[in-house]
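User: Continuing from earlier, I have the next pair ready.

Assistant: Great, send them over.

User: Here they are, in order.

Assistant: Folding the first of the pair now:
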Amino acid sequence: MENKVRAIVEQFFSVEKIEGVKIFGNRVIVTLQNTEENQEVFELLKKSLLAIEGVEKVSIICTGEKKVQNLRPQTEKYNVRNVKKIIGVASGKGGVGKSTTAVNIALGLSRLGLKVAAFDADIYGPSLPTMLGYEGEKLATTDGETFEPFTSCGIESMSIGTLIDRNQPLIWRGSKACGAIEQLLTQTNWGNIDIMVIDMPPGTGDIQITLSQKLDFAGMVIVSTPQDIALIDAIKGVNMFKRVDVPILGIVENMSYYICEHCGHRADIFGHEGAKKTAEAMGESFLGEIPLHLSIRENADNGTPIVDSQPDSPYAEAYMKIAEKIKERLKL
């Protein structure tokens, strides 16, 4: 069926514009790049695809600007059903271990007895499927309208990474990226969730601002390494979220130090206590420090996060202490 679907799509759009064609049960999702929305053409394409036996629903996502007459009010919120509290894990720049921190905090909150969901809003660099061990698995839907979340390590999760190939870049403008995030957030059957942890994109761009306006965040966790260049960007992140009225839960210092396994010597490779001092200077909470260690990285890459695979290790304990502070701060 996939070849037949793609052949029909290629009758309407050139191969260069077709970013992806995915089939999930009886649902077809067509992703187009550098394409403005044309409802007349889209309806013809949908009609052709629905004529294929087994296809009951067609969704078309394109990267062109939406042409709409009535924009929704900026204050209208995303309807994320059955989720009591939402927190974000963000960073001012990439490469500071934000996603690893987000996943292990989520698992830490789960170990504290909460029902937890993790959502991957890092749309241009989704890593939850890899870190939670379901990379390559297909999205499931029972009704053709909504998605079933992935269950891994005792938590529910969803990621745009399940809709695209691992090596394929997303060339999406901010509005289209936000639309895809809204669809996955609001059309997933989360069940009854105490707290959702959202892995935010790095930086302070369109997606961060839109999510801050469209979701009622209970708070934001800012991740940084101790070095000055990362802290400068972390400060920008704190100030941006405060400007859009998102509470700051605190700052985490990742890759804080390294302990040699052979001699026990401690090395502050990227400096030390930079995030703690920054938090104090800004009047924000310091949530804790995470050491630099091979096990944390290897387990993240292997889909076996350290909090789940080595719960008694000192590295898992570092994440657990941060999760405990977050739970206490949110009165969960």
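And the other member of the pair:
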Amino acid sequence: MRRAYDGPKRVIDLVGALVLMIVTAPVTALVALLVRRNLGSPVLFRQERPGRDGEIFELVKFRSMTDVDPDRGLVTDADRLTPFGQRLRSTSMDELPTLWNVVRGHMSLVGPRPLLVSYLDRYTPEQARRHEVRPGVTGLVQVGGRNGLTWDEKFALDVEYVDRRSLALDVRILLSTVAKVVKRDGISDSDGVSMAEFLARDSGGDLGA
């Protein structure tokens, strides 16, 4: 039944993303201009991420950090994230270009968030099940605590989504995401910038780091 939903889900993703791109076009254009003025070029952040079945694609978002510049002390994410970038993230407007990834079929509106390529060989077989579906712009993790969760908790929610995915669940997640964004709830990790790196247990890491 879950696999039967994947076909209609793709159609919903395509139509939904195209509609959202049209509706948000003026906002997207304005944000692009603001990013160019505040952070310079390039306006877009591009990075390879693993998609369904671990296939690599290029994720696109609006840039929210300055370039690395050791001479100016801009090395860590905390150093490079400007007040403008923080506001961009807190409103999730940096995600607007990601709708193009949905249109192209790399991503879904709802699903496990695409993480780093370097994490692929760190997952347990159960955790790797998160790649049985297209990654999402939002998901159970984003409405269930975001970066306030441990890695164990995040992966458990990702796999739960894979097993329970349905139209009703997707609608509930999308509505909850809108509410979270409006309240600016749970956007950043405890350091106020980004989530901690996932380190596999067998390499000495702690999934809850």
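Worth noting for the second one:
The beta strands are 44-50, 56-62, 108-110, 136-138. The longest strand covers residues 44-50.
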